[in-house]
Amino acid sequence: MSKFIRSTDSEWFRHRLSGVMYFVTAAFVVIFLRLFYLQVIEGEEFRRLSENNCIRLQSVEYPRGLIFDRNGILLVDNRPSFNLSIVLNDAKPVESTIAKLSQYINVPAEELRSKADNIKGISSYRPVLLKQDIGRDALAAVEAHKYDLPGVSVDVQPKRYYLYRNTAAHLIGYLSEINSGELKDEKYIRNKPGDFIGKSGIEKSFEKYLVGKRGGRQVEVNVSGQVVRVLENIDAEAGNNMYLTIDQRLQKKAEELLEGKAGAVVAIEPSSGQILAMSSRPSFDPNEFVCGLTHDEWKNLISQPNRPMENKALKGEYPPASTYKIVTAIAALEEKVIDVNTSFYCPGYMRYGNREFRCWKKGGHGSVSVVRALAESCDVFFYNVGQRLDIDKLAWYAKACGLGAPTGIGLEHEGAGLIPSAIWKKKRFGSAWSSGETLSAVIGQGYNLTTPIQMLVLTASIANGGKRIRPTVMKKIETPEGRLITESKSEILGDLPVSRNTIDIISKGLWEVVNKNYGTAWIARPGGGIEVSGKTGTAQVVGRKEGDDEGKRAPQHLRPHAWFVSYAPSSDPKIAISVIIEHGEHGSSAAAPIARELIKCYLNPESENGDNAGVAADDKIVYDEY
Fold first, then answer.
1. What is the DSSP letter of 527?
2. DSSP E strands: which ranges in 324-406?
3. 3-state per-residue secondary structure call for 384-440
4. CB contact at 8 A, 314 and 451
5. Looking at the structure, do residues 231 and 274 belong to the same domain, yes or no?
6. CA 263 to CA 569: how far, in whole Å?
7. How would DSSP label each residue in 430-478?
8. What is the mean pLDDT of the chain?
9. How many other C-beta atoms lie within 10 A of the C-beta of residue 348?
């Protein structure tokens, strides 16, 4: 019996022990599987989370390339910007930290909290930008209380700085934060939200050269998110430096001469196509875009009637007025409807059908040939030419001279202008071209539209003997170490459709415009032995009524635009200039004196006395040519 009991107890114990062993084994299997899941399957993720508690990767921003003028004068630099960020996982309790931060830097807590709330889907270990460019006082406050502000940090990043503010602002352009649409563009594949990119001008067109390469560093942080030590560092690479073709001294003079006006000035070296100055007014300060404009500030800028954001030198399209007579004279001479000796009598008007086409000079010019007609800007002479010249022939010569199409300067949003023809009018309006419209076209009115840079390139082509040269604003691009990457070379687009004899005739007429007392722009003589050639123009904004005193009675916004194109010295041109003054009324009094002062500044700087007004006391003569 006792043996049976002992056997039964032993059997029961073995069963219990086996059950315990099975349980223990199962428990170890579960633990092993859990460890396998945590360390193998999810190991990488948990390692990342673990490291995020003490090791962080920080982006190091690159400085953009610097921009200089042709002589090495620095125009655009980078300055240090102190940007305030927060890592929410380190900043707990977040509400308390933000409340303290608000007091220290004197920024409403709601503004800071709204930035922190707009990070849905972003890791709580990633820094959130609360405020850019906080200033040195706010920086000092944050540093002084950094132990009360867990998760809060200040990063120093390079920010664009335009040294001369609104000088050459339209040419240089500005930076602004990249938008969602641009982030999808392959051109910006290396960018991320919050990056600033070129939005206009040089900054945009040469973005690929000016942009640098972002760096990074691996740092160890403490429980408050403060950096304890740097584990690894990859330096950011600065963008390439760019040298523009503009002369800063001449550019500054152009800006001064346009002060208080709406219009544009652009100057070029006729032999190379290098732009020497480009100014459009009114202007803007590109530094304001880097700091960030509010919606209301942006709306105010783009709604102003004088269009401060428009580069009028490239995009502004205006009737060329009498400056277009250069093209008309070329077409008439080349088509042999006139020659150098052909004369027409100007009594001050010409009757055509039941209309009277007036000359700007009420008493008339008498008998004039093409050279004198250019010098005095005689409308009646060109009306007579228009009766003998087909509109499509005139349009062909205008386009062959580079009008009606962008010049190819390499900057975005360049205007094309408009050169009308019979085919164009049929397509546009569904009606035939009338011969009376040709009389308006030959003097640069009617449907004609050109940009200041188009008229500049045409003028430079006359100056250099008939070569159409592509304008350029880039002189060279170098690495930060000074290694040359690329430089501009003169690019001849073709020849003007003219003979050497025609060029000589046109040149003589343009010389007389300035250097003869009967010329419409004798006021443009700079003195100092410098001879200037040019052509004035006064572009109607609205049609004139019989008896109107050439727009003087009209309100300001309906008065004519003032043109002047020129080059100097006449015998060996070093500079060509195009000036347009919106509603300036007369090219002779509003535009020509500006060109005169720029020519003096560029060719004879020693005698240039800085006459900012650009119009001397005796500049009272007014010619009303159209």
1. B
2. 344-346, 349-352, 355-358, 366-368
3. HHHHHCCHHHHHHHHHHCCCCCCCCCCCCCCCCCECCCHHHHHHHHCCCCCHHHHHH
4. yes
5. no
6. 25
7. SSPPPHHHHHHHTTT-TT-BB-HHHHHHHHHHHHTTSEEE--B-EEEEE
8. 87
9. 17
Same domain flag for 206 and 261: no
Q: Mind listing the pLDDT tens digit for each residue in 239-287?
A: 999 999 999 999 999 999 999 999 999 999 999 999 999 999 999 999 9
What's 469's domain CATH number? 3.40.710.10
Q: Which of 99, 227, 215 lies closest to 153, judged by CA?
A: 227
Peptide bond into 93 cis (omega under 30): yes
pTM of the model: 0.83
Which portions of the chain are predicted below pLDDT 70? 1-14, 16, 38, 42-53, 56, 58, 118-125, 221-228, 542-553, 607-626
Q: Are residues 32 and 154 in the same domain?
A: no
Q: Is residue 434 annotated as a catalytic residue, yes or no?
A: no
Q: Does 145 reside within a domain?
A: yes
Could you tell me whether strands 492-495 and 467-469 are parallel, antiparallel, or unpaired per DSSP bridges? antiparallel
Residue range 502-534, pLDDT digits in tens: 999 999 999 999 999 999 999 999 988 999 999
Q: Are residues 528 and 460 in the same domain?
A: yes
Number of DSSP helices (H) and strands (E) in the chain, helices first = 21, 23
Active-site pick, 322, 461, 488, 533: 322
Task: Flag whether 380 is in a domain.
Answer: yes
The confidence score (pLDDT) of residue 619 equals: 42
Tokens representing 577 are 């200039």
pLDDT value at position 192? 81
| Number of domains, the chain | 3
Contacts of 70 (CB under 8 A, 6+ apart): 243, 244, 245, 246, 247, 274, 276, 475
For residue 244, give the H/E element and its range: strand 241-244
Query: d(Cα 411, Cα 388) in Å, to the nearest integer?
Result: 39
Question: What domain range includes position 77?
Answer: 56-244
Are residues 75 and 8 part of one domain? no
Q: Report CA-CA distances (Å) from 481 to 238, 245, 424, 485.
A: 10, 21, 53, 11
The count of C-alpha atoms lying within 13 angstroms of the C-alpha of 326, restricted to the half-sphere facing its C-beta, is: 38
Looking at residue 139, the DSSP 8-state letter turns out to be: H
- Is 299 a domain residue? no
What residues are paired with 60 via a beta bridge?
Answer: 215
